[in-house]
Amino acid sequence: MTCPPARAARTGRRTEPTVIGPLHESAHAKINLYLHVTGRRPDGYHLLDSLVVFADAGDVLSLHPAQRRPETGRPEIGRPEIGRPGAVGLDITGPFGAGLVADGDSNLILRAARLLRAELDDTDLLAPVRIVLEKNLPVASGIGGGSADAAAALRLLLRAWPGRAPTRERLMALAVELGADVPVCIDQLPARMGGVGERLGPAPALPACGLMLVNCGEAVATPAVFRARAPHFTPPAALPAAWHDVAAMVRDLAALTNDLQDAACMICPTIRTVLQVLETAPGCRLARMSGSGATCFALFDTPQAARDARDAVRRPGWWVWAGGLHAPADQRVTA
Ligand SMILES: C[C@@](CO)(OP(=O)(O)O)[C@H](O)COP(=O)(O)OP(=O)(O)OC[C@H]1O[C@@H](n2ccc(N)nc2=O)[C@H](O)[C@@H]1O
Ligand SMILES: Nc1ncnc2c1ncn2[C@@H]1O[C@H](COP(=O)(O)OP(=O)(O)O)[C@@H](O)[C@H]1O
């Protein structure tokens, strides 16, 4: 893609967007180890206090240069949109891909791309790209898969598009515009989440532990769960600076709640069955719903203990994942 000639002459700058090779980002499942609804804003959004961690389970986003037909240099046939500077095409694959459409108004990846593009200078120099989403996480399920995808898309595009990146503060503001859960998904690190999701603080140091995620296959809409919740508020939790073992972590978490769990169980009663099955799984230390559901999680002493319990939990139509927490390399996004 070249700059329009007048603009190229005016700016005297490089006229070709940088061609980038395939880039990859993983978008990990977010788990709310507890979730207190502490209040409500005048606009109806709820104030939350939550300890958020990330599982090793996740979607994968790959970014490729947009395809062109070599003999003409024109955009790929049937994908005219993909040749324009800053254009982002999206292909969706993976076991849960069929539940999503690559639509610019609804898909959080394309919405993230549009928001970032509007933020950057020199959009003529943004290489057209194609993102491939491998959708491994169930959709609308309380583990923030869409939010994690949006955050991963922002990270990918910041790597792919040269120019002045937004400051971290601005990036977080863009993230919360996409959804309350998106800011915490930017770094994918354990965090104490406050406000409506935009206030992030340090989590207690966590012990290594095992984790199981179970989704019964019924999508649960977040707004409906917030609407159905009992109208009381819970104060923020008092947490230690560190949990040295799983027993200490589970003891403290057991005294806390997910304030959306009862409402989600009313909307989707199968969640109660999932929780009963998890509570009786060998080695389970704590079972609870994540976010607005329907996915539930169980904590185990080790990832292997979680994997060993998988067969006792599997039911037809249920998604069952077992492993550990996501342990990222230092990947804070800064500008
Ligand atoms: C409940 C949580 C807890 O982590 O997780 P999920 O169930 O989505 O995984 C999140 O706060 C969800 O975040 P996210 O899914 O990004 O929410 P948004 O798209 O911003 O909002 C969807 C709707 O949920 C309600 N909502 C969301 C967040 C919040 N703090 N208060 C709210 O009342 C609002 O009705 C809003 O219209
Ligand atoms: N890339 C995406 N992955 C998942 N959901 C998406 C995506 N883009 C848009 N959505 C929409 O976002 C909503 C929330 O999805 P998700 O983040 O998976 O669930 P939750 O907010 O319950 O954790 C769903 O209604 C879904 O249709």
Describe this structure in words.
The structure is a single chain. The chain is α+β, with helices and mostly antiparallel strands. The protein folds into two domains: 181 residues, Ribosomal Protein S5, domain 2; 121 residues, Alpha-Beta Plaits, CATH 3.30.70.890. It contains eleven helices and ten strands. Strand 3, helix 2 and strand 4 form a beta-alpha-beta unit. Helix 2 packs parallel to helix 3 and helix 6 crosses helix 8. It is globular and about 55 Å long. The two termini are 27 Å apart. The N terminus and C terminus are likely disordered. The structure holds 4-diphosphocytidyl-2-C-methyl-D-erythritol 2-phosphate (SUD) and adenosine-5'-diphosphate. 4-diphosphocytidyl-2-C-methyl-D-erythritol 2-phosphate binds next to strand 1, strand 2 and helix 6. The site of adenosine-5'-diphosphate has 18 residues, from helix 2 and helix 3. Keywords: ATP-binding, Isoprene biosynthesis, Kinase, Nucleotide-binding, Transferase. Its EC number is 2.7.1.148. This is 4-diphosphocytidyl-2-C-methyl-D-erythritol kinase.
Pick out the low-confidence regions: 1-14, 330-335
What is the CATH architecture term of the largest domain? 2-Layer Sandwich
The helix tally amounts to 11
- Measured on Cα atoms, how large is the radius of gyration? 21 Å
Overall spatial form = globular
Mean pLDDT: 89
> Approximately how much beta-strand content do the residues carry?
15-25%
Helix content: 25-40%
**Bound chemical compounds:** 4-diphosphocytidyl-2-C-methyl-D-erythritol 2-phosphate, adenosine-5'-diphosphate
SSE-based structural type: alpha+beta
Biggest sheet statistics: 6 strands, mixed
